[in-house]
What does this fold into?
Amino acid sequence: MNLRLRGKRAIVTGSSSGIGGGIAKTLANEGATVIVHGRNKTEATKVADRIIAEGGKAYVIAGDLIKDDSAEHIANEALQQLGGLDILINNAAAYVNRGWTEATANHWGELYNANVLSAVRMIRLFVPYMKKQNWGRIIQMASGEATQPFAFMPDYAATKAALVNLTVSLSKELANTGITVNTISPGIIVTPGVERFYREMATSKSWATENWDEIEKHVVREVLHNPVGRLGRVEEVANFVAYVASPLADYINGANLRIDGGSTAVIN
Ligand SMILES: NC(=O)c1ccc[n+]([C@@H]2O[C@H](COP(=O)([O-])OP(=O)(O)OC[C@H]3O[C@@H](n4cnc5c(N)ncnc54)[C@H](OP(=O)(O)O)[C@@H]3O)[C@@H](O)[C@H]2O)c1
It folds into this structure.
């Protein structure tokens, strides 16, 4: 299938690692020019270098999204490098392993700023350019936790629910502009960060193994079961995102699209 992404210009926030890095790589493989972004310039540069080595086009922009001025700087630099923007992937997010007892109201506020307002900043900065060209794609990376939260990390789950919600509102606001707005909600996807997280859990739960395949089986059995019977892979999410970001997906709008092996037990 030709995704018709050749020549499209994209920014993937938080693509210096994990899922974002995979999305940037896939979009570039499909012919898009991508901005690889993160706070860690060294890691972002490694991702961009790999893309370029494989024949793709990528630029690096480093910066924090939690403040208006640095977000503006990132957007301006991206517009300058690319001469406009077609695809915005709001992927950057933080998560902290804490529960209701540890998470203070301040923690909730800080995480809301990092995970929700960062996306809002990017949307506000890029939408005027997308409107002018009568085409655009805005994709928020949410999570299965948006609709089926765990008892732990309640502040994180709530930020993901907010993204699902604002996506629907924005899709209505941008009616008849050629811009679609969607969220993608992954289940547990194996990234270096997720691997670290569950290796720590393995110690605290006495799963008595350092073997990742064994730990993964424990996670599927005891943390989040899914009928496929394994955790997700970065490439699977990246391929899905690339399709939704492509012109082939013109009629997908205002949706919360799950990629979780079936772990979210709902009929719609
Ligand atoms: N992995 C999963 O199982 C899973 C499941 C469901 C949803 N998700 C969602 O998918 C997305 C990617 O997750 P991941 O696991 O790949 O995460 P990750 O490996 O921890 O990567 C997060 C990225 O976001 C960037 N970032 C974080 N806070 C930032 C800030 N304030 N300003 C700028 N950049 C910031 C990080 O940049 P630096 O490191 O360079 O600072 C990094 O590139 C997130 O939205 C996450 O919530 C992940």
Notes: Residues 14, 16-20, 38-40, 43, 64-66, 91-95, 114, 118, 141, 143, 186, 188-189, 191, 193-194 surround NAP (CB under 6 Å). Helices lie at 18-29, 41-53, 68-82, 105-132, 154-173, 192-204, 212-223, 234-244. The CA atoms of residues 53 and 212 lie 30 Å apart. The chain has a mean pLDDT of 97.
